[in-house]
Amino acid sequence: MKRILTIWAALGAIYVALEVVFRGHSHPAMLIVGGLCGVLVGAINQTSRFYNAPVIVQAVIGAVIVLAVEFAAGCVLNLWLGLGVWDYSNQPGNVLGQICPAFGLLWFLIMPLAIWAEDTARWLIWAYDRAVYGKSGKPPDIKPYSLKSVYGDFLRGR
After folding, report:
1. Sequence-separated contacts (24+) of 45-52 with Cβ below 8 Å
2. CB 70: neighbour CB atoms within 10 A?
3. pLDDT tens, 118-132?
């Protein structure tokens, strides 16, 4: 559980940082939402059924996961609590102003980065545990693929 929370926090922080870089601001709730998306997307690769699935298939599933989390979080944060964290109501095809096709496509395109980031974070955390605490557990002992190779597989449909 500690490892999952560490991955959640690390990926949530990365998400907030990226949002600040590209949007100029973020909201503290996005640490939770971004981390949850990272953990759920990472679960794709931890499931034997999808472990060897083509990256493009994982990207589709990951984008759907992110859109579902974003929609649920938006309904709570924006519609119910009125925090105004985001509003896509001016985007074509939006659903209640919380999700839209353009951002769904964006999530699909950056999903290989998310998959690589989660795999790398997981590998580093398990490697740290092994080095510091001597735990053998069930860590991935093989270093994750490079980001370049993940996108290469994505573009080739592998």
Report:
1. 45/115, 45/118, 45/119
2. 22
3. 888 888 877 765 555
